[in-house]
Amino acid sequence: MSDKTGIVITGASGRMGQMLIKTVLESDKAKLVGCVERAGHDWVGQDIGVAMGGAAVGVTVTDDALEAFSKAQAVIDFTAPAATIAFSKLAAQARVTHVIGTTGMTENEIAQLEPAARHAVIVRAGNMSLGVNLLVQLTKKVAAALDEDFDIEVIEAHHHHKVDAPSGTALMLGEAAAEGRGVKLADVRDSGRDGITGARKRGDIGFTAIRGGDIVGEHDVLFAAAGERIVLRHMATDRAIFARGAVKAALWGQGQKPGEYDMIDVLGL
């Protein structure tokens, strides 16, 4: 019997889904035990290796998430908010670790994960990479050190397929900056500027979103004052960094008490 952690990937046909599948298949600590797609999808019923254009790996794509989860110790979920909420209930029922990389979730949607966290481990993060989570910590420290003479702007760039803005990572950075300053992001958030907006309000945290080409993910946190600027930057060039972080989170979740965690917990930062 294998001592590897059994992992299910939801949204198997998506770009992140396929990257996650490849990462798990290559892992020496995890094994792929299930792949989930929506009912009616062409991949349902196919071996995932064949569906991805390669050799069979012995795992069939299913639309029955609960059945797949019941055979696993963890599920990695980079899908959409409504699907993630539904998966959280099934993961809690199966008592498996639920790693959530889904972005674009509202506060209300995030709150709907709380009941599941009473019964299972949930690790949710807007970004699973080590570098980004270090950037979050640095942003908090710099924001705490500088007063409101420094305007804060979070500038993010992603590929043209991305459907949500600002990105989940940008919001993580904004939250970190707000926490550093001892304020709530909801009270100082400034995004979606267009037209005659008037002068920037002192103390606001701004967001700028760029969409184009195949950009994997770039994030700058700009601290701008009269006569000087400080820029903290992270650039992702390979989507695999997010997949590796997600697998790390799934392994870390084994043996943890039910509850909600993030990558700061996983990385021990």
UniProtKB/TrEMBL annotation:
<dbReference type="GO" id="GO:0019877">
    <property type="term" value="P:diaminopimelate biosynthetic process"/>
</dbReference>
<feature type="domain" description="Dihydrodipicolinate reductase C-terminal">
    <location>
        <begin position="131"/>
        <end position="267"/>
    </location>
</feature>
<keyword id="KW-0963">Cytoplasm</keyword>
<feature type="binding site">
    <location>
        <begin position="125"/>
        <end position="128"/>
    </location>
    <ligand>
        <name>NAD(+)</name>
    </ligand>
</feature>
<dbReference type="GO" id="GO:0050661">
    <property type="term" value="F:NADP binding"/>
</dbReference>
<dbReference type="Pfam" id="PF01113">
    <property type="entry name" value="DapB_N"/>
</dbReference>
<comment type="function">
    <text>Catalyzes the conversion of 4-hydroxy-tetrahydrodipicolinate (HTPA) to tetrahydrodipicolinate.</text>
</comment>
<dbReference type="Pfam" id="PF05173">
    <property type="entry name" value="DapB_C"/>
</dbReference>
<comment type="similarity">
    <text>Belongs to the DapB family.</text>
</comment>
<keyword id="KW-0520">NAD</keyword>
<dbReference type="GO" id="GO:0008839">
    <property type="term" value="F:4-hydroxy-tetrahydrodipicolinate reductase"/>
</dbReference>
<comment type="subunit">
    <text>Homotetramer.</text>
</comment>
<feature type="binding site">
    <location>
        <position position="159"/>
    </location>
    <ligand>
        <name>(S)-2,3,4,5-tetrahydrodipicolinate</name>
    </ligand>
</feature>
<dbReference type="GO" id="GO:0009089">
    <property type="term" value="P:lysine biosynthetic process via diaminopimelate"/>
</dbReference>
<feature type="active site" description="Proton donor/acceptor">
    <location>
        <position position="158"/>
    </location>
</feature>
<protein>
    <recommendedName>
        <fullName>4-hydroxy-tetrahydrodipicolinate reductase</fullName>
        <ecNumber>1.17.1.8</ecNumber>
    </recommendedName>
</protein>
<dbReference type="InterPro" id="IPR036291">
    <property type="entry name" value="NAD(P)-bd_dom_sf"/>
</dbReference>
<dbReference type="GO" id="GO:0005737">
    <property type="term" value="C:cytoplasm"/>
</dbReference>
<feature type="domain" description="Dihydrodipicolinate reductase N-terminal">
    <location>
        <begin position="7"/>
        <end position="128"/>
    </location>
</feature>
<keyword id="KW-0521">NADP</keyword>
<keyword id="KW-0560">Oxidoreductase</keyword>
<dbReference type="GO" id="GO:0051287">
    <property type="term" value="F:NAD binding"/>
</dbReference>
<comment type="pathway">
    <text>Amino-acid biosynthesis; L-lysine biosynthesis via DAP pathway; (S)-tetrahydrodipicolinate from L-aspartate: step 4/4.</text>
</comment>
<keyword id="KW-0220">Diaminopimelate biosynthesis</keyword>
<feature type="binding site">
    <location>
        <begin position="101"/>
        <end position="103"/>
    </location>
    <ligand>
        <name>NAD(+)</name>
    </ligand>
</feature>
<dbReference type="InterPro" id="IPR022663">
    <property type="entry name" value="DapB_C"/>
</dbReference>
<feature type="active site" description="Proton donor">
    <location>
        <position position="162"/>
    </location>
</feature>
<dbReference type="InterPro" id="IPR022664">
    <property type="entry name" value="DapB_N_CS"/>
</dbReference>
<feature type="binding site">
    <location>
        <begin position="168"/>
        <end position="169"/>
    </location>
    <ligand>
        <name>(S)-2,3,4,5-tetrahydrodipicolinate</name>
    </ligand>
</feature>
<dbReference type="InterPro" id="IPR000846">
    <property type="entry name" value="DapB_N"/>
</dbReference>
<dbReference type="InterPro" id="IPR023940">
    <property type="entry name" value="DHDPR_bac"/>
</dbReference>
<keyword id="KW-0457">Lysine biosynthesis</keyword>
<feature type="binding site">
    <location>
        <begin position="11"/>
        <end position="16"/>
    </location>
    <ligand>
        <name>NAD(+)</name>
    </ligand>
</feature>
<dbReference type="GO" id="GO:0016726">
    <property type="term" value="F:oxidoreductase activity, acting on CH or CH2 groups, NAD or NADP as acceptor"/>
</dbReference>
<keyword id="KW-0028">Amino-acid biosynthesis</keyword>
